[in-house]
Amino acid sequence: MKNKKILVWFRNDLRLHDNEMLVEAIAKSDSILPVYFFDPRYFDETRFGTAKTGVFRAEFLRGSLKSLRSAFRKMGGDILFVQGRPEDYLKELVERFDIAEVYHHREVAPEETLISDNVEDLLWTLKVNLRHFIGHTLYNKEDLPFPIKDIPDVFSQFKKKTERDAIVKSCFSSPESIAFVENQEWGEIPSLEELGFILNGNENFNGYPEGGEEAGLGHLKSLFAADSTIYLKNGKNNADKSGLSSQLSAWLALGCLSPRMVYWQVKDAESKFGPNIHFNQILLGLLWRDYFRFMFKKHGIAFFQEEKLENEVLYAAVEGDALDNWKLGKTGNPIVDKYMFDLNTTGFIPHIGRQLVATYLIHVQKIHWTCGAAYFEEKLIDYAAASNWGNWASIAGLSKDVKSKNSVDLNKQFKILEVEIPDQPSFA
Ligand SMILES: Cc1cc2nc3c(=O)[nH]c(=O)nc-3n(C[C@H](O)[C@H](O)[C@H](O)COP(=O)(O)OP(=O)(O)OC[C@H]3O[C@@H](n4cnc5c(N)ncnc54)[C@H](O)[C@@H]3O)c2cc1C
Fold first, then answer.
1. Does residue 373 have a pLDDT over 50?
2. Measured from the CB, is residue 350 less than 6 Å from ligand 1?
3. Which tens digits make up the pLDDT trace of 188-209?
4. Are 132 and 104 in contact (CB under 8 A)?
5. Label partner for 363 (CA 20 to 30 A): which of 75, 78, 263, 300?
6. 285 C-alpha to center of ligand 1: Å?
7. 305-417 maps to which CATH number?
8. Span 136-171+213-301 CATH architecture
9. For residue 342, which of 60, 56, 58 has the smallest C-alpha distance?
């Protein structure tokens, strides 16, 4: 085909480095049309009365898209911003730009896969192929030592076999040049107000992580710089693992950083500075991230062992003020309240904080775990469906890994929270 044009549909993959979808699109076409959809479904209210996306994540997303646009503009092109659902606009775009194929990254959570399926059906009617890429994980699924259906449900087994028998591929280089489809109007990144946020004027994003590939790579570099106090000076013999946090998660969640890039940077730092528990912690985190994504892929919603999750969610109505008090950080438990305050004001709390507030909500307040997961979905700057719902389900005792030593030690959590062990603390 002469003058073949490929539409590259960006989702949670907002980067140029290690982006196989982009590399392939450039190689297989004469020109590409990068597109991002501000899908209103992601700025809607959920059935829990929470927002699908809170203001901090929306601002981080806007920053990430500005960064991507700027990278494309430096190469003489741009990215098209569309406010609407891909299902409603792709037909027109395919026809207007004479697009031969659409490339995108497939997600694992049900809502996202449904969107891909809808788009695939729509494109099929136009005889246009939707090509799927899976670039979110450290290990490619085809490189795992087992097919998806046989992936061990127990994390320690997944980790052991994967580390022993699978390899982490090297990163794809960032493209040096790109031929872009001719276009005049590329659209604007909507303001927070245009995305539906009602601002009270007190929002201050100074001091929050800046979205985008450039900022993410800068943060990654700073972690391993020779003068990085956290990672090098304190790291070697630090036995207290609870406070470790690279704070890479927001860039990883939006795909501004690829997990492979993080992995190889850690390996490089290890070779320069020697082993370090902080390095191990990051690599372990990346494996947990892969594990939850692959569990979603393998089991879908059945991963939660809640056969009627839909009904559970519908009946998760809560009486009294306990849920609101938890959200507002007014439970009276100082540890929970401190972490909830931090979550509400920064969009980030470390892993230990997430475990503690979730334990408190589920096992002390006896509130359904999905209410907490939905609130985290709104507030977290690093929200990622598989990681969030997977971790919440684990704490509720509903993941497939519940019997293993990796499951959360609730009694330890109650001790830190200084609460008495509640009745029936064990899993539901
Ligand atoms: C209730 C609950 C909800 C959570 N929701 C999310 C979420 O929506 N998005 C998210 O990225 N993480 C989530 N996590 C996992 C984890 O708490 C965060 O990834 C981590 O705190 C981010 O900090 P960091 O970047 O400093 O992590 P590091 O410890 O430095 O780890 C490096 C990276 O590994 C990944 N990672 C680490 N631990 C986990 C884990 N247990 N599960 C999945 N990925 C992990 C993250 O991408 C992280 O950036 C949740 C954990 C709990 C207990």
1. yes
2. yes
3. 999 999 999 998 877 778 778 9
4. yes
5. 300
6. 7
7. 1.10.579.10
8. Alpha Horseshoe (1.25)
9. 56
In this structure, whether the domain defined by 1-135 belongs to CATH 3.40.50.620 is answered with yes
151 three-state secondary structure: coil
Q: Is the CB of 17 under 6 A from ligand 1?
A: no
CA 249 – ligand 1 centroid, Å = 6
Q: Rounded CA gap, 264 and 243, in Å?
A: 23
Q: Is the pLDDT of residue 319 over 80?
A: no
223-232, 243-252, 347-356, 364-373, range with the lowest pLDDT? 223-232
Environment class of 372 (CB within 10 Å of its CB; exposed 0-12, middle 13-18, buried 19+): buried
Atom of ligand 1 nearest to the CA of 248: 25
For the chain, residues classed under CATH 3.40.50.620 are: 1-135
Q: Give residue 304 CA to ligand 1 midpoint distance, Å.
A: 18
Residues 381-418 pLDDT 10s: 999 999 999 999 889 888 777 655 556 788 888 888 88
Residue nearest to atom 44 of ligand 1 (CA): 289
**232 CA from centroid of ligand 1 (Å):** 21
Q: Which of 60, 137, 249, 304 to mutate to test the pocket of ligand 1 (most atoms within 8 A of CB)?
A: 249
| Spacing of C-alpha 291 from chain mean position | 13
Task: Give me the pLDDT at residue 244, please.
Answer: 72
Residue holding tokens 């979603």? 296
288 C-beta closer than 6 A to ligand 1: yes
Least confident of 4-13, 297-306, 385-394: 297-306
Range(s) of the chain covered by CATH 1.25.40.80: 136-171+213-301
C-alpha neighbours within 13 Å on the C-beta side of residue 322: 16
Share of the chain above pLDDT 70, in %: 89
Range(s) within the chain of domains with CATH label 1.10.579.10: 305-417
CA of 255 to the centre of ligand 1 (A): 14
State the distance from the centre of ligand 1 to the C-alpha of 211, rounded, in angstroms.
Answer: 17
Q: Which residues contact 234 (CB under 8 A, 6 or more apart)?
A: none
70 pLDDT band, cuts 50/70/90, is very high
Ligand 1 pocket test: which of 241, 258, 387, 389 has the largest number of ligand atoms within 8 Å of its C-beta? 387
